[in-house]
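Appendix B. Raw example, untouched.
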Amino acid sequence: MKKLAFLICVLVLFSCGSGSQTRTIDSSIVKNNFSALEKFEKLSGGADILFNEYEFQFPDMEKGDVLEHTFYFVNNGDKPLILTNVKGSCGCTNVEYPDQPILPGEKGAILAEINTEGKKPNKIFRVAVQVQSNAISKKVKLWLKGIPYEKQ
């Protein structure tokens, strides 16, 4: 019985793919990026907002694709955080964000959606998501960028 268990373990290990091919994980496919916000410095003096990232580059896309990316944040202040205005810098961008106060230590997310139909092919675009709140840092810009290619 021990030999059979050992043999199964060896087969599982070798069948998992020990090739030299490496694979990177694109953060756009990770469903929960709150883990980047587990250890944060708590501030006093009001609400504050800390994001897991402030800029995101989309992978290759075709012109006309609709892209989504989520920015995750935590209220690292000592008062409730209220997002007062969140908008994209152009008409190609829609955003969804929490409209309820985020208590100190709680986390939230801002979903940005970009339609690349009006973007120039083979040229990098850069779109801002402007976040206004009652935080110590009242205005924050988040950046989305990418290069759309002509459809084949």
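End of appendix B.
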